[in-house]
Specification:
Helix content is 66%, strand content 5%. The protein is mostly helical. The protein has a two-stranded antiparallel sheet. It is elongated.
Length: 161
């Protein structure tokens, strides 16, 4: 597959797998972002990551059974933003260096499931510590370490191996 630029010079699509996964990851990011906005509008809290409600003691006590809703949604959003961009960079570098497209597709699918599970089954689950949280966190770390190792393997010839 290729497209043309300028005078009809064919240019191959460089990152089809990484490009294909931008849609589901972006859709989920928008959902997380809109949840934060919803809490801000609902509670008229325009800045900060905790509700300034005098009746809400959860922002200082860290009550996991009844967390501050703005803080919870902010952390869900930020946890996603802390991990996914670097994962995409690693995936793009791997793809540019000849990664197997099916391996990369399965890895991105696994990462998506891990990130969604981290939030929906973990942080938003019972007591904010349901099983999805550690599975999502350790799984994402495994993805990053694995993708970094896979990319290093793909360029092993550069180091003379």
């Amino acid at each position: 597959m290729s497209s043309t630029i300028g005078l009809g010079v064919p240019v191959p699509k460089m990152l089809p797998v990484t490009g294909a996964w931008t849609l589901p990851f972006t859709a989920y990011l928008l959902l997380l972002s809109n949840r934060v906005v919803y809490q801000r509008i609902k509670n008229k809290q325009w800045i900060g990551d905790h509700l300034n409600n005098p009746d809400n003691k959860n922002h200082t006590t860290g009550n996991a059974d009844n967390p501050d809703p703005l803080f919870l949604e902010s952390r869900c959003h930020l946890n996603f933003l802390e991990n996914v961009p670097l994962a995409f960079v690693f995936a793009a570098i791997a793809e540019l260096n000849g990664a197997d497209r099916s391996v990369l597709s399965y890895a991105m699918a696994a990462l998506f499931a891990l990130r969604v599970g981290h939030v929906e089954i973990g942080l938003r689950g019972k007591g904010t510590m349901a099983n999805g949280r550690p599975i999502g966190m350790f799984g994402t770390q495994g993805f990053l370490a694995g993708m970094a190792a896979y990319t290093a393997y793909l360029v092993k010839g550069y180091w003379g191996y």
